[in-house]
## 1
Amino acid sequence: MYQGIRIAGFGGQGVISAGVLLAQAGMLEGREVSFFPSYGAEMRGGTANCSVVVASDEVTTPIVSSPDTVIVLNEPSLSKFEPMVKPGGLLIVNSSLVNSKPVRKDIKVLYVPCNAIAAEVGNPKAMNMVALGAFAAVTGAMSVDAIAKAMTRVYKKLKPEIIELNVKALKRGAEFKLN
Amino acid sequence: MAEKKLMKGNEALAEGAVRAGCRFFAGYPITPQNEVPEYMSWRLPQVGGAFVQSESEVSAINMVYGAAATGVRCMTSSSSPGMSLKQEGISYCAGADLPVFLANVMRGGPGLGNIAGAQGDYWQATRGGGHGDYRTFVMAPNGANEMANFPHKCFEIACKYRLPSMVLADGIIGQMMEPVEFMHPEVDVKALKEPDWALGVNHGRAKRIVKSYDLREGMLELMVNERVKRYRQIEAAEVIYEEKMMDDAEIAIVAYGTSARISVAAMKLAREKGLKVGLFRPVTLWPFPKARLAELSKRIKKFLVVEMSLGQMVEDVQLSVNGRADVYLHARPGASVMTAEEVYTTMESISKKGAKEYATAK
């Protein structure tokens, strides 16, 4: 089993922390994992992205150049990361903020209105969790429970009620299915 | 077995150093190693140590010189341009036989370069870097787990043989997160014996002087030659390397750090296509595993060096195989990272008869 993931969006959307969470969750499930952030001259409001690998075998390169799954959280990331997706791979698009449509026909596309759902749940900041829930459910690369469990390890300072809202957002995301 | 923890390479290195007994850190910020001083700034006070953000790299290495002279386990870290600034001080540490621990999380160069991961400081790290005849014990980790565990070995060697030791990582290894397991028991600094050369309060013992010079005629040569004896001992006893699928290999990839990780993927691709490829990973860059490569070159006739620099380690491989085998190069300088597919293509071309030696990709 090998799953290479790229997550991209604005700085501040939780791109990096979503990546760390996936790696932690994969580790809890006994997988080999790696996480690698973009660390160029990034800033809040600028673009950020990260690579995550979850695999049953040793992880070679931590930089995922041909991802099985790309999660795009904002408009500019779509044109930048859509071409990278492996043929037959999965593109998760945050349809709350991304208006353009992917052009490729050789990949699977899942539209998830992450911001809208996070707002419904009661924590607009948890939009990245909605995307992760969808990712876990559609790819089966890890369980939603593992991601939920990983939260207390990664976000040590978060209050329990906020974690609860995050888990809610995660579970709402997990209700999405590929058509 | 200790519990595995998801850690960033730089943080793992810092924690590994603290566990290995490091109680003094001085440094100046530079990407991509900033997590090391950041971690040390809160971690060292917890264990009774001291952290100093100095006004420059030059002062940082000289503070470390001072701390080491008192027998304290100490370190500084930086990235390429910052390491260049520290070279004079490192030469002084070597000249004064001081056990200091250094970490270079390499970025693109030369000059200001860029902040992405690179391997262009191989020569600087393995050839001494500063002025004069000296060596530095250099270890090249291939991920966060080795970042966590190599400081222990580096302090052990530095203290045993009295020389500077270094972890030579790159931006990718510094920035990546991986499951980490600290393998060594934590060093109890109170139980460490005070070295018989360390400075401190003198209650009537013989005078001790820490210095990197001897101006009396002929004495400096004796001093250097005494040091060289220790270098020879290190070369004989402290070489570390790793081999993967080398038993039946017809082509051996030689790579360290991030390049070695990518080479594992390239090796697997090659094996799937029926090419008999193995990987030889030097873990200590000095001492370089010359003897083992020499032995392998009696059987293996093609060596492919993969490095994120213009071709630096390739010279050590050529010296080691000494004409017994063809040596090829796949080089990506300027903080560009090769892909496994790209390395595989190079392997495919050199697997053919009459392949041009020493070809550079791109």
Note: Chain B has a mean pLDDT of 95.
## 2
Amino acid sequence: MEKIDTSFFSKEREADLFVVGESVQRADARGHVTGQTQFYEDVTFPNTLHLKMVRSPHHHALIKNIDVEPAMKVPGVVRVLTHKDVPNNWYTILKLIGVGPDDEPVLPEDRVLFKGEQVCAVLAETEQAALEGARRVVVDYEELPPVFDVEEAMTSKPFKQAGTNYFVYEGHNCRRIRFGDVDKGFAEADHIIEHRYESSPIEHAPTETTGCTAKPEGSGRVTVYSNTQALYFTLDNMALILGVPFNKLRLVGGTVGGGFGGKVDVIVEPIAALGAMLTNRPVKYAYSRAEEMQVSSPRAAERLYIKDGVMKDGRIVARKITLYVDAGAYCRHSTYGTTKAAAHMPGPYSIPNVHVDAYCVYTNRTPSSAMRGFGVTIGDFALESQMDQVARHLGMDPMELRLINAYRDGDTKAHRKTVDGAALVEVIQAAARQTGKELAPRFAAMSSYQREA
Amino acid sequence: MAWLSGRGVAAVNYPTGMNLGGDPSQALIHATTTGGFVITLSSVDLGQGIKTVGAQIAAETLGVPYENVVIDTADTDTGPHCMGTFASRGTHRIGNAIMMAAREAREVMMSVAATELEVDAGDLVTDGKGKIHVNGAPDKGISVVDVALAAHFKHGKTISGRGMFMKPKSEVVPETGEMDPDSCQAHACTVAEVEVDDETGEVRVKKLTNAYEIGRAMNPALAHQQIVGGAWMGISHALYETTEPYYPDRGHGPTDFSQYLMPGPGDLAEMESVIIERPASNGPYGAKGIGEMTANSPIPAIANAIFDACGVRVQSLPITPEKILRGLDSLREQSNPTH
């Protein structure tokens, strides 16, 4: 168990508490380890239909025709849903908080924008029949050249039904942070240190794949048993897509076998509920492991260019960051994550001149979305690799370089928020202490409360 | 050929919550006839333990035993609104909502107790063990059970409370990026020790030493599970995982766990962590979010340790044996160009 080091911030942390701060046993531990916890899949109904998707084999193609008749001939197939069945087919998940435009179809109309995109939904008595039905649907495609590289996408022909290959932030092609004057900072700096960092998409890898069962009720409502991370978010988006009053829907969930951000999209619920409404039967739509890995949104790949102007004494006086978030084919939560990434820059350091251009770029790959540390994790990999490269360039101790630049209470961040509750200095001091590293007196005496004269 | 040792450092901060669209969560609390308390939410427990921490916060604020609190979640027919479980927001947002609801319920509970005891409510305290008594006079008291019974059957009162937390939407200034996107910042520093096999490019993470500043450790065992689980994910992100191994090329995507590699229990590093508490002024009992951050500092710390060990700076994730071997080859090429 972790020790709590009470020597830091001892006055502030004083409190007379009796149960907060105690390691009471997790409320769900016994149920989990004895297999008694109820997950959405443990709620079953007779007469349930299974939903399997026909998926695009192409990264980018026009849909010329969809022939569902061969699927309907498969014994057990009950219905095939296409975009024509979806009341409000176009949506974007963040429209509830005012983000637009609607850039994603529930089921595509004239084109597919990534390999694995859902094209039409086959409902059948058994999973086997649904899979067989999905295999029999004939879709005529006209393949188009895909774009996979974020920087290439910025300048290549727009591939979406409408709009550019990047999200537009209030008239700008990127989310901007402008603080001080980086050019002046670079001109004054003793050293310029510039590097490129990149990541690849990452899967959430939950134990339980994304899924739901939608059940029509005698009252005319639909109850959806789901493992979403956000019940109301799902409910509200579903109501908009299905064009039904919000109180026609009920979401039940709350116990999830691993989320990590992978279950905040709203993909399985609307189409399952639509199936339930059109057939008046319960419909289950659950991702296979392969779908979870290749079709469900991963963590976005990012590319960052970091240029630092650094003084001989270790002070970073200017930092310019160009950041690309690979949103894949649709917006989902990426516009939000890109803003979060921009706000995080230039890391927990007080740098007087900061310039950030953060682009949310569309490519012909699986749309990325939220994942643990959304907008920050990959930025931290880049920032902290960069700090190490700066320290080595100057021949400085990596902890001391960080302490020299660490933000303190009262500093102004690049996004113009005043710092309070800072503790970067102290976690570095604590880590030094734990590893038996002796910090020079100047660094051992530092505090987040104020900057030393 | 040899195993080369190296050490790397990384330090990070992490925002609690993200309110670019407003970031609300609500909670309802009511007492049962016999002094149990039910918290009704629509929040989701992903395994991080919001049910447990939420009940702790309610018990602390109400001044009743933890065992008396039940959390009912998540059903949109009964639970009030919650934005969702993400952005390291649960303990902070939902915790604040629960605290507010518990305060309101506590006020009713104390006023009923005061009527029963014929004293002023302001003179009463809770002992956290199921009893309410006059401050300084433990004998002059009444059990929470009796207070609840009296409320229900004698006074016709509901011991209940409504709570909500909302940070209003922050509009971003398009030209400068001025914004107020979060409620507080948690902090972490990781020192990674690794070994790199210069023949195969394999990396072993030997030890992670961490310091985390998280406002307040509401439940140290749950903080521990976040720290260990997050570090495991960090090791995995640094060295193993991707759905597109040759990004931006789309080929060779894994479709199951035999192709999508992650470290097993034997690949977990030795961990030594310490927690620091600098309570957040706006957090419930000072809590900040710890959830997401724990995966972040290990990744660059491992990357920096790999450089320290073998001189190869890999600037793209994941840091696979292939990338390390290519880096070692090019170092050898530079030092011995005629070879």
Note: The two ends of chain A are 39 Å apart (CA to CA).
